[in-house]
Design goal:
heterodimer; A: 599 residues; Cytochrome C Oxidase, Chain A; B: alpha+beta; Immunoglobulin-like; seven-stranded mixed sheet; five-stranded mixed sheet; 12 strands
């Protein structure tokens, strides 16, 4: 079929007509661009969750600027108390509130708009939103008020005000309810036959995220409820058990981000350049691998802990022999290969990389997608697997290599993908043009470029043993000097530079989103083939496949093209990736081998 | 859906459980093989490598650990640095290091090439043992004794930073380990094996 308009879809039957179904009574609009039926109550939930997410992004970014200006020793802006306090604020605002509110928008969007379905429980959506917002505000007020200087992880027996834990519980319960709404929407859509066949791959990916979210949030309940009771003096919590179960929440929630991000990769590929699904079986099986194995990652944080033995560590840290890494390496191939094939099917067949040269680099949805894939894979993925290796963790644990890794996954990967999706949500859901259009075209490059400098410099600084979560590595108030190599000062200056560039990118993004949504110009009629300021190219020039697409597809899959198949450019790219991966992985073993003997 | 070509936004109709192209299968195979290499390295290093975070692990009450450590300090104390005891245990000894907000107690004096069992535990909250400048890091958890067999391979004046947030004075928490030159008896190097 040719995306995005399927003119064969019949109008819904009115009341009394055969085939009438309950959702005919709901209020729908038909998207003028994609012809999709969009349910008012679903759209409202997407909007309010996305906007809330972006408000928390703003709070987190302000904290980020103050933090990097403190770790840059030449500036050293904040006092120790405010440094640690804002580090907690930054992490909660970004990693929990921004990302999860946006994921709630994604879950509502994927379970309704993408399959022409309705929000089956609008009131429940609002109750969940209220719980989440109330919880988030409670947590923020506790942290800003200095009643929860326990950082993101709040390791017992560090103690925060009981209301802090209660706020987290409210937020988690709200999020759990939204996953319920998500599954209910899917069931109702199936029963009302809003789509034929299987769920689209993007929705399948979102369902993966929702399932992992349930696992994650149950871990959250299992640790925050006892900790809340402990903070009231009602029970005991073992510090090591806390670490294990808390990371069942803390790390697994990052796997919700991974699944949601990969789903958005498939969506942005389709919207921007008509990326196709190479093989449903492979891509879906990879999502199943995430569900089966990815919640074992709690172990990544316990590799040099006294509580658990080597066998447990080896099995868990590797997601049972790296089956979740396998899943990511599969998506790392199928996403770009689907993009390459999509472009080749539309006639961009020159050489190995003609499809990349001709791609719409000025479409912020597309550039965000590519930058997200590249930085997530090359920096986040490679460092993540390497530092999550049991023994290598000895030279990594709690150094700057850890935040160096997860900023490359969560920020350059997930947040970048969410930003790219927002450039399409603004015209398609908010029905507004993207404001400050020229800035929007540059924003992904600024954000990802800044984050690249930030994460790589942080990783190198961590190689010298520079601790994370540390106010003063000159140790001016400590009893003994710790003379770091002078290169560390330079690296931390680069961390600040990259951080400030990325923060500028984030501020521009927030500005664009707020201006577009609240004060923006209405989208107005879109004419195919006519470029418009403030409308991404994937909407004005939808990547429609020609009528003879199947014949082209057959030619590209012809046996005469040999092992390189329909996407030879991607094969070259993934082999480069594998070579970089192996080099980084084995250099770390080499460095480890120089240390004291430890066992 | 009139064709087999569709995007991730389209609901695939009919049977989509179809064989993949050879290129995709080969990549999945390569990725699987690489995952096995990643995995095999860990047991392999336990067997052949010299740095493993295994150790002797047991639960201990913070008060009991503190009592044992103070006894160790009395037994082997050789000096003081601004009130902090300097302790020089013989090679092979069990060595106790207490972490507390915001200090590491005591200062350890070890010999290059000798093996010790270094017991780490915390008397209050979580701390992070980070040996500067060689960048060796372990988590120190209250209620747990982490007994690591260590063998310093170079002499020098080392620092122990705390790299787990332990309170507002976290950044002042620095301890000291002194490693002195090679001992008279370098214990049978060929028999050196990981335990």
């Amino acid at each position: 079929m040719s995306y995005p308009i399927d003119t064969t879809r019949p109008a819904p039957p009115a009341a009394g007509e055969p085939g009438y179904r309950p959702d005919s009574q709901s209020r729908f609009r038909t998207c003028p661009v994609t012809s999709r039926r969009i349910h008012a109550q679903a759209e409202a939930a997407v909007k309010v969750n996305a906007v809330t997410a972006i408000v928390f992004l703003l709070v987190g970014t302000i904290a980020a600027v103050l933090i990097v200006l403190t770790r840059w020793q030449a500036v050293h802006l904040l006092s120790a108390t405010w440094f640690y306090r804002l580090l907690g604020v930054h992490a909660m605002s970004m990693l929990i509130f921004f990302i999860i509110f946006f994921e709630m928008a994604v879950l509502h969007f994927a379970s309704t708009v993408l399959i022409d379905a309705r929000n089956s429980a609008p009131k429940t959506s609002w109750v969940a939103y209220g719980l989440m917002l109330g919880g988030a505000l409670l947590v923020e007020s506790m942290m800003w008020g200095g009643k929860a200087d326990v950082l993101f992880t709040s390791y017992v027996p560090l103690r925060a005000d009981p209301l802090y834990y209660l706020g987290v519980i409210f937020f988690a319960v709200g999020a759990l309810i939204v996953t319920g709404v998500f599954f209910a929407n899917l069931v109702v859509a199936k029963r009302e036959r809003t789509y034929e066949g299987s769920l689209p791959l993007v929705v399948y990916g979102a369902a993966t995220a929702a399932i992992i979210a349930v696992i994650t949030l149950l871990h959250g309940a299992a640790i925050y409820i006892p900790t809340f009771l402990w903070s009231l003096g009602l029970m005991k919590v073992d510090p090591e058990v806390y670490r294990m179960v808390w990371w069942g929440l803390g790390h697994s929630s990052q796997q919700i981000n991974v699944a949601a991000m990969v789903a958005i990769w498939y969506m942005l590929g389709a919207l921007t350049i008509g990326a196709v699904v190479l093989n449903e079986k492979i891509s879906r099986s990879a999502f199943v691998l995430y569900i089966l194995f990815i919640s074992m990652a709690s172990a990544h944080h316990l590799l040099v802990d006294p509580g658990l033995g080597p066998a447990w560590k080896v099995v868990n840290t590797s997601y049972f022999m790296y089956m979740a890494v396998l899943a990511s390496m599969i998506h790392g191939f199928t996403v770009p290969a689907g993009m390459e094939l999509g472009m080749r099917l539309r006639g961009y067949t020159n050489g190995l990389f003609g499809w990349l040269r001709k791609a719409p680099w000025g479409d912020p949805g597309f550039s965000s997608l590519v930058l997200s894939v590249v930085v997530f894979g090359f920096v986040g993925g490679i460092t993540g697997v390497t530092i999550g290796t049991e023994q290598i963790n000895i030279i990594v644990h709690n150094t700057l290599r850890v935040p160096g890794h997860f900023h490359a996954t969560v920020v350059s990967g997930t947040a970048m993908a969410f930003m790219g999706a927002t450039y399409y949500l603004i015209p398609l859901i908010f029905q507004k043009r993207v404001a400050f259009w020229r800035a929007a075209k540059l924003q992904p490059y600024l954000f990802a470029g800044g984050m690249f400098i930030f994460t790589v410099s942080m990783t190198f600084a961590g190689n010298f043993g520079v601790p994370r979560r540390h106010w003063d590595i000159t140790f001016s108030q400590a009893p003994y000097s710790v003379p770091f190599n002078p290169i560390v000062d330079l690296l931390l200056a680069f961390v600040a530079l990259g951080g400030l560039l990325a923060a500028t990118g984030a501020f521009i993004f927030v500005g664009i989103a707020v201006k577009s949504v609240f004060f923006g110009q209405a989208l107005g009629p879109v004419t195919r083939g006519v470029a418009m300021v403030g409308v991404p190219q994937g909407i004005t020039h939808p990547p429609v496949h020609a009528a003879d697409v199947d014949q082209r597809n057959a030619e590209l899959h012809d046996a005469s093209r040999g092992i390189m198949g329909p996407a030879p450019g991607t094969i070259v790219l993934v082999l480069i990736f594998l070579a970089v991966f192996a080099l980084y992985f084995f250099s770390n073993w080499k460095i480890l081998s120089f240390l004291w003997r430890i066992g | 859906m009139h064709t087999e070509t569709h995007t991730g936004l389209d609901a695939p109709r009919g049977d989509w459980w179809k064989p993949a192209h050879k290129a995709e299968k080969v990549w999945v195979g390569i990725a699987f093989g690489w995952c096995m290499v990643l995995f095999a390295m860990m047991p392999l290093w336990h067997w052949k490598g010299g740095q493993n975070p295994s150790g002797i692990r047991r639960r201990v009450e913070p008060a009991a650990f503190a009592a044992r450590a103070e006894e160790f300090i009395r037994q082997y104390k050789t000096g003081e640095d601004r009130g902090m005891p300097i302790v020089e245990p013989p090679p092979g000894a069990d060595v106790y290091l207490m972490a507390m907000a915001f200090q590491w107690r005591p200062i350890l004096k070890l010999k290059q090439g000798a093996e010790y069992t270094l017991h780490l535990s915390s008397l209050d909250v979580n701390h992070g043992f980070s040996l500067f400048p060689i960048n060796v890091n372990f988590q120190v958890v209250p209620g747990y004794d982490y007994g690591l067999r260590v063998r310093p391979n170079a002499s020098g004046d080392f620092r122990i930073m705390c790299n787990e947030f332990c309170g507002i004075g976290h950044h002042t928490m620095v301890g000291r380990v002194i490693v002195t030159g090679a001992p008279a008896v370098a214990a049978a190097p060929s028999a050196e094996k990981v335990r």
